[in-house]
Amino acid sequence: MRFSVVAFLVIYLTASTASDYCYDEGQCDPYAWGDSYPTCHPLLEAHHSPINLEDGVTRDEALEALELKGFDSVQKGQWRLHNDGHSVILEVGRGMMVSGGGLPGTYITLQLHFHWGSLATNGSEHTIHTQRFPMEMHIVNMKSNYPNLTSAMEDPSGLAVLAVFMDVNYTENTNFTPIIKALSAVPHRGQSTNVKPFALANLLPLDHMGLYYRYHGSLTTPPCSQVVEWTVYEVPVQISRSQYEQFATELFSTEEEEEDVLLQNNFRHVHPTFSRVVYASREAQLLAATACPAAAPCSGLLLLSLLPLLLGNLDPRS
In what residue span(s) does the Alpha-carbonic anhydrase domain sit (predicted)? Predict the structure, then answer.
């Protein structure tokens, strides 16, 4: 995941010890980020993102649709679209907030950005049953009780990211037109342009907002800080093939005066969940889920099920 305000923070934290990161094969691909950014090493039991979502998630009946304040209105002023060489980031000011749905607080919406593949490959970061979607959109939010991202990133739940899969069909999605039209103004790294605000809710799977999965993880770009509460929606939004191609063929990871290098396949590899619990919302349907009793914390289910065995009161063959 990437966002311009955090990009400055990343530069501040790492400029003296590490080079910039990229997605190409070789020393700068995601598997090698840990060589320059030690916090990106996926050590045992580390809570890194993205992950693969599969059957066996834990149902939490308390996880209802999130409250998205200001998402259905048009904000004042101008938004800013920026090509940082890793993605395109739409900065949306601070007129929107996210809360509820089991999140540990209220979060201020900062920006959104995208991950995609190429004309021949899919490029979502999260996968479902190991399968990628063509694209994934991340809406990045910071816990509202912090004055800045530096403070928020010291909190294990300082950031909340809404992840929306994007699929491709034959029909143009006009809700994405303001962003896609602006891509021609930011083809190269470092370029920015204004975007007239629109109702951000239009980019979401509005009829399926109660269907999602929740887990604790990390940023998916350096410094890979493990400070993110992820909400991954199971129903994708649709864009046309031609709209997808504008991301995959008209954006470059290089500056204007450099030789053009297409910005493609800008996703981090999938990481193990280790001991983490992945929760399914009350309405989530895609993945088979176990129950989460209201009277007992889900994290204790395994221990509770083992107690009879430990006490010798249950034949393990039954």
Answer: 19-282
